[in-house]
């Protein structure tokens, strides 16, 4: 009997239920995926978008060419006085010479190590909270919210543990901007949550108080709040009472920002389906357990973009403290560019301020997007 191959005796098996063998997978065309695909789909997908893209590219090219020539090729970097700025480009010598003042304000030069330690501790807290591979997030959070503010207070103000006391009138620059923003952010969030819960409360008196507070502070400009806190508030205090100007500004910023935060939190609470409330009540949970364990965690996840947007707005609004005599980063730079010893350095100064604000705000924005992706529980289609 002749040898017959075994594969001819067994009929081919179908690849699927219909009996048809699917075609082999093929890679997508190179011009539809990756960067090229994104460019084709978003920038050159129509005649109008193509024209607008080319116009935008032209302006970007002109701006980049100008900055390359003015800010890099013909810029002055060496030196420590205005006499070193001899070319037609940017005078970055001004930023280098005034950099300590821009960061530390009028803080004594022999005590700036205290601010550097505070910056180091703050960076340590941020890294511990942001990097997922670092364990002990709970302890980092406790240290950041409880211990770090106390350490920063004694480091900056002094007057204890053998540290020289440095009044708040000598604080300034980027360090003051950071203090105003961080205190406002940390203090306004819990107050805003309480106000939002009170506004949605079923108790008429509590609800009325919260609504009145929120609507009043949201209807007043921050400049007016700072002016009232610095100038008018001492008039209503008892004789001999002296409250620090920085403390009054922090109280005003916190009260103002907490009203906006309350509305952001209220929007997140209203976005929670009614079934979540009913399910929590069906489990026999009381109001505080239902709110703390079921409702509020879901609402906070939904509110991440709004919360961070409010934080970014607060960080930029800290420049308004100039009107009450506090010299933050922008105020320090504005006073420096009016120095007759440094003529025509306003562009360099404002670019430095814009860069510092952009770094901080962009970092907060990127971290918020990371949190959104991390806590996202939506079902995405392929």
Mean pLDDT: 85
| Strand portion | under 5%
Give the topology string: H per helix, E per strand.
HHHHHHHHHHHHHHH
Mind telling me the CATH superfamily name of the largest domain?
Answer: MetI-like
Number of helices: 15
Radius of gyration: 29 Å
Low-confidence stretches: none
Structure description:
This protein has 382 residues and is mostly helical. The protein folds into three domains: 30-73; 108-165; 177-372, MetI-like fold (Orthogonal Bundle). 65% of the residues lie in helices and 0% in strands. It is built from 15 helices and no strands. It has helices at 6-9, 34-42, 47-73, 93-104, 112-130, 137-157, 173-199, 204-218, 222-232, 245-270, 274-282, 287-302, 304-317, 329-337, 346-375. Helix 7 (173-199) crosses helix 10 (245-270), helix 9 packs antiparallel against helix 10 (245-270) and helix 10 packs across helix 12 (287-302). The radius of gyration is 29 Å and the shape is globular. It starts with 5 loop residues before the first helix and ends in a 7-residue tail after the last helix. The model has no long low-confidence stretch (mean pLDDT 85).
In brief:
With 382 residues, this protein is mostly helical. It has helices spanning 6-9, 34-42, 47-73, 93-104, 112-130, 137-157, 173-199, 204-218, 222-232, 245-270, 274-282, 287-302, 304-317, 329-337, 346-375.
């Amino acid at each position: 009997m002749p040898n017959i191959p075994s594969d001819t005796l067994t009929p081919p098996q179908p690849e699927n239920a219909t009996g048809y063998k699917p075609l082999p997978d093929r890679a997508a065309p190179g011009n539809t995926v990756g960067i090229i695909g994104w460019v084709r789909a978003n920038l050159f997908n129509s005649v109008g978008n193509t024209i607008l893209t080319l116009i935008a590219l032209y302006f970007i090219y002109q701006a980049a060419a100008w900055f390359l020539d003015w800010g890099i090729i013909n810029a002055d970097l060496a030196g420590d006085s205005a006499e070193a700025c001899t070319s037609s480009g940017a005078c970055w010598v001004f930023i280098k010479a005034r950099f300590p003042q821009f960061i530390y304000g009028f803080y004594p030069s022999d005590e700036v190590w205290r601010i550097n330690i505070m910056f180091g501790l703050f960076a340590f807290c941020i890294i511990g909270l942001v990097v997922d591979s670092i364990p002990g997030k709970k302890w980092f959070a406790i240290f950041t919210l409880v211990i770090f503010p106390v350490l920063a207070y004694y480091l900056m103000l002094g007057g204890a543990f053998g540290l020289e006391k440095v009044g708040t009138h000598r604080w300034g620059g980027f360090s003051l901007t950071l203090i105003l923003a961080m205190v406002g952010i940390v203090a306004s969030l819990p107050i805003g949550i309480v106000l939002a819960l009170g506004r949605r409360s079923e108790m008429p008196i509590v609800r009325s108080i919260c609504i009145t507070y929120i609507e009043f502070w949201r209807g007043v400009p921050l400049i007016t709040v700072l002016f009232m806190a610095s100038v008018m508030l001492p008039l209503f205090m008892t004789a001999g009472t002296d409250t620090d100007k920085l403390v009054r500004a922090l109280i005003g910023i916190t009260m103002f920002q907490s009203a906006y935060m309350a509305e952001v939190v209220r929007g997140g609470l209203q976005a929670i389906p009614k079934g979540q409330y009913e399910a929590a009540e069906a489990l026999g949970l009381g109001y505080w357990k239902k709110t703390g364990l079921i409702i509020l965690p879901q609402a906070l996840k939904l509110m991440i973009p709004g919360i961070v947007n409010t934080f970014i707005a607060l960080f930029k609004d800290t420049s308004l403290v100039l009107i009450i005599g506090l010299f933050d980063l922008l105020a320090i730079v504005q006073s420096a560019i009016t120095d007759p010893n440094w003529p025509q350095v306003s562009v360099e100064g404002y670019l430095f301020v814009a860069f510092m604000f952009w770094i901080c705000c962009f970092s907060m924005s990127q971290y918020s997007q990371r949190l959104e992706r991390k806590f996202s529980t939506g079902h995405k289609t392929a």
